[in-house]
Amino acid sequence: MVYAEYAWLIPILPIIGLLLVALLGKKTPEGGGYFAVGGIAASCFLGVMVALEYLTGGSSEPVSGTMTWLQLNSTLKLEMGYYIDSLSAVMLIVVTILCTLILVYSLGYMHEEGERKRRYYVEISLFVVGMEGLVVASNYLEMFVFWEIMGLCSYLLIGFWYYKPSAAAAAKKAFLVTRIGDILFMIGIISIFASFGTLNYRDLFTHNFIAQPVDMTLLGVGLFCVFGGAVGKSAQFPLHDWLPDAMEGPTTVSALIHAATMVKAGVYLVARSFPLMVHTPDVLLIVAAIGGFTALFAATMALNNPNIKRVLAYSTISQLGYMFLALGAGGYMIATANLSEAAAEMGNAGYMAGMFHLLNHAFFKALLFLSAGAVIHAVHTEDMRLMGGLSKKLKITSFVMLIGALSIAGIPPLSGFWSKDEVLAAVYNAGSANIWFYLLYIMGIVTAFLTAFYMFRLWFMTFKGEGKEATQHAHEAPRSMTVPLIILAIFAFGTGFILMGPDGGLPAVIRTVNLDGHLIAGETLGLGWIEKLFTEWQTWLSIVVAFSGVGLAYMAYFKKSISVDRFATGGSKKVYDLLLARYGFPRAYDWVGMKVVYGFSRAIDFFDRTVIDGVVNVISRFAVSGSGVLRKVQTGVVQTYAIVIVSALSVILILMYLLGGLR
Amino acid sequence: MIDFTPVLPAMMLGGVALLVPAVRMLTKSDKATGIASLAGIVASMLLVFYWFYNGSHMAVFENMLRIDAFSALFMLIFLFVALYVVIASLRFVDGLKHTGEYYALVMLATAGMMVVAMSMDLITLFVGIEITSLSSYSLVAFRKKDKLGAEAATKYFIIGGLSSALSLFGISLIYGATGQVNFQAVASAVAALHGMDPVLILAIVMIVAGFGFKVAIVPFQMWAPDVYEGAPTTITAMLASGSKKMGFIALFKVFIIGLVAIKADWSMMIGIVAIATMTLGNVIAISQTSIKRMLAYSSIAQAGYILIVLPIAVVGDPTVAQYGLAGGIFHMMTHAFMKGGAFIIVAGLATAALGEHINDYKGLYRRAPLMAFAMTIMLFSLAGIPPLAGFASKFVLFSGAIYASNLAGEQWLLWLAVAAIINSAISLYYYARVVKYMYLDEGPKDKLKIAPAFGVAVAVCVVAVILIGVFPDPFIQACQEAAKAFFLP
Fold it and tell me: In chain B, whose CA is at the least distance from the CA of A632?
């Protein structure tokens, strides 16, 4: 292990870049952006080397190193360190590569921002630090620290154009809504500490539940709260509504939030906690149910939204739902397997599917966002109704975006197809353990259809049809923007094929992550497995659904043989408006915020002002006025000082007598 | 043959101190003189480091002096203080006369503090204190033509003389009652007395007054604001971070080791004095208009926090006592950096022609952004805001009081923690006010030019404060080691 010992450097390197930007940014071109790119590229190199070294090392033992952060007595010991296993290795590859590409893209995209560029590069570097630190962290507390850093940066970056009221409001919303999750996460951490007396992954994941039983109710509540943290960060129902608004930030920030950082942190948290969660099947059922419902729920809101970035935002929420669904289904299978090897193997497949979908989604969603950024850069609007016919002007962009759309729609052989299919297969298999999973499976299939439809609606509306006024002067983006797009397109096209690597390739490595006591020497995936895949009816169902979604979009938005305006009027108008109003969730949030929280705060405020402040005011008035009086004692005359000393001697003598000295 | 190695760091510093005026005379360069002093300090520091990592302890001169983890840690702290004081002085005393003597006195004062850290009996303790005191009287008076400085030095000298007399009287009373001067021997003699000797009570009062002057505890604090304000600011930094710590070591050695057997007689009295000290310091600090006086009162308040260690470190449970003492040592360590750093910043800004009135700090953020940032770090650390050093050390210090209050018969110690926490809250008011002035209020627009030497000295303190705050553990362990060594016979 040459590189792994330096894994702690991964989040440090962007900090160096950040400091250079902060100190020298004013005097260097692009507001010091090259320092930020340099810092992140260096951490990317190290991260990829660490990950490759670990994954090709052949050992399934995690590599970790810790130092004591704070030890006050024998029970309260907090540590800091790094923890590399197959999960964090794969996350490192995804996160560092994507962050680097997005930062390079930023150089072009943010070129016209002027003075504010320095702030942008400082904040975005810190954002990357948060995510990388979260991935390599060796315990929950350390993870929480980086988790909060990321929360702060998301606030700063979403509100980057803070002079726009909508951006300021969106930043506030993102911060407050994810905060609910953060508090739950913290309660979860405290519960885990109370259950096990440690927060280190190494100790937690090797805990022997038979030799040292823990309170399963407390653990269940704790893990439920941990999942609550993931719900907030990954924008799952009912804390999903901040993510569409978060589009107010620069598109690069949206890409970063959606593809590599932030929302992926929630999925990573659940995957990280998987070895604990497999002991609490109820929590996993909730994970799957929330995931499955959110997938469908968010997909419906994407159907008629006219804003290109918001459609992508809903699709992110929906795809994240898939990941939670797969993790929940897989974990549930393991939790209820009762040592049945076949069932546990299916459960492992679910875990693998969730992480594999995360990997694929990271690449195609980054591609889609950055392409959307290139479009917006060209036409200076985000409203798709004002776009059209751009495929002639933005040849590269339209082509790479098509790849992204095909991938997310699940058209074989692009990456999205493989992982989505595995997610659905895992959920279907879990149906044998609990009947509810069949319902979730149907939701997943419907979501797949809707996904294909709205993605191609987006693509046709943007790139095909008649050109509009806004598109007259559109031109292709500069090379610093198109090159990352092409690289991402290659990934989005090809990451599915790593399944066919030796022994099932990368996803199979993830499959064996940390499932201590549940680890089963899986059958080789390889080509034989693919053959099996294509002989199952579920696979063909998902292919048919995907193609019919694309077909419907083609009819409606390219051929115009189906009039879409019909849905916006008449009887279905209510549904149409309901979707546009996001099922009334923003209003519900406001209502909760205004009526419940604000009312409660007013009550507390009253108590605070009258009782607490009253006491504090009395004390402080005493302190301030006493200060003035006592100050006058300080005469500045040295004789007084000597007198005070001598009389103080007598006072102390008397004091000691009173306290029982001279018995 | 006497083995001089344990006292080598202090001897070497004293030797260099004697050579420095000669360097000044030969080279006629202030800069070369300063560099020579720095070399002496760094060399002495390396020697202590060597001892610190060897970890063994060794006594010399018939057990009059001893180097161990405790004294080595404090010698390091004192040398660090001397280091940044000298670095900052490179620019501060530039152009003044007698710079050779200035540096020599700084080093002699430090050597005296090192002797106190190593002392094992009352005589060496007193000698060490006097070496430091006499050097610092002259340093405070260093700007002879400055009225304020001359006045401050006179006051300091008169009150200092009175205090020396009182503490010497106290020491002689202890000797008279026990016939011993070695701390351990005094301890066993006092324990053998069975019952209270009124002479010892008088001795306790005299020693509290004498050493309390150095530490500036209430009611022996009145000289401190005047002297801190009048002295050259670099010397103020040394008084607040070095000399004050020396007074604490003296109190620790006499009370925690020597007079532990009669703790019932003094521990509650010290507790009351501690609460009075922190409260008075914080309350008066609120109404100060000079930043140096404000920092002086805050320094008095910090002394009150550290003073709660005395009753904690004599409780029956050795682990709790050791933890409590470690908390005190840790807070003294962090205080040396944050308070010293704050004074160095004031000195640096003063050489850039900024006044010492708090109003002069308005809008400093635009005039000297890095200095304003460093000052904010120092003030927040003093107030105990995480993740800065002051938070970590206050946490350990106050939690020591809480642990100790769980022991039978020591419940009253909880009130020390309560008082300290309330006082910390009060102190935030005047610290945050300066930050508000620097960042939120409008002031003059012209940039201030800060000499690089100050930048270096301030950077040392800022790095230390942040580093200790973020990774407190190695420092806490070092303080635990020191506390352990302190209790060893």
Answer: B284
Contact A648 B220 (CB under 8 A): yes
pLDDT of amino acid A31: 73
SS3 B65: strand
For residue A476, give both structure tokens: 């292709």
What does the alpha-carbon distance between residue A331 and residue A137 come to, in Å, rounded to a whole number?
Answer: 23
Query: Which residues in chain B land under pLDDT 70?
Result: 1, 54-55, 94-95, 194-196
Do A652 and B286 make contact, defined as CB atoms within 8 angstroms? no
Q: Nearest C-alpha of chain A: how many angstroms from B43? A: 31
CB-hemisphere CA count at 13 Å for A660?
7
Instruction: Using DSSP bridges, classify how beta strands B65-67 and B58-60 pair: parallel, antiparallel or unpaired.
Output: antiparallel
Q: What is the mean pLDDT of residues A652-659?
A: 78
- What is the DSSP secondary structure assignment for residue A572, as one 8-state letter? G
Q: Give the pLDDT score at B5.
A: 77
- State mean pLDDT over A259-283: 86
CB distance A640–B222 less than 8 Å?
yes
Q: Which tens digit of pLDDT belongs to each residue from B312-329?
A: 998 888 888 999 999 999
| B155 close contact with A: CB closer than 8 A | yes
Distance from CA of B36 to the nearest CA of A (A): 33
Per the document, the length of chain B is 489
The candidate with the shortest Cα–Cα distance to B131, out of B10, B212, B251, is: B10
Please tell me what DSSP assigns to residue A433: T
- Residue A351's nearest CA partner among A540, A514, A182, A546 is A514
For B399, which residue in chain A has the nearest alpha carbon? Answer: A72
DSSP state of A207: -
A420, pLDDT greater than 50 = yes
pTM, entire model: 0.74
The pLDDT assigned to B277 comes to 92
ipTM over 0.95: no
Distance (Å, whole) CA B463 – CA A184: 34
Which residues constitute the domain of residue B450? Answer: 5-487
| Domain locations in chain A as residue ranges | 281-580, 586-658
Looking at the structure of chain B, the number of domains it has is: 1
Token pair belonging to A579 = 């979707």
* Interface check B37 vs A, CB under 8 A: no
> pLDDT tens, A192-228?
888 888 888 888 888 777 788 888 888 889 999 999 9
- Residue A629: other Cβ atoms inside 10 A: 11
Contact B426, B383 (CB under 8 A): no
CA distance B156 to chain A (A): 9
Q: Rounded distance, CA B393 to CA B119, Å?
A: 25
Cβ contact A624–B287 (<8 Å)? yes
Dist. CA A533–CA A417, nearest whole Å: 12
3-state secondary structure string across A82-132: EEECHHHHHHHHHHHHHHHHHHHHHHHHCHHHHHHHHHHHHHHHHHHHHHH
SS3 (DSSP) at A69: strand
Chain pair A-B, CB pairs under 8 angstroms: 100
* B463 in A contact zone (CB under 8 Å): no
A646/chain B closest Cα distance in angstroms: 9
| Sign of the dihedral through C-alpha B385, B390, B393, B394 | negative
Do the Cβ atoms of A31 and A117 come closer than 8 Å?
yes
Residue A407 contacts residue A416 (beta carbons within 8 Å):
yes
Q: Using the beta-carbon criterion (under 8 Å), do B283 and A626 form an inter-chain contact?
A: yes
The pLDDT tens digits of the residues spanning A98-152 come to 888 888 888 877 777 777 888 888 888 999 999 999 999 988 988 999 999 988 8
Residue pLDDT, tens place only, B211-266: 988 898 888 888 888 898 888 888 988 998 888 899 999 999 999 998 888 887 78
Tokens 């600011």 correspond to what residue? Answer: B233
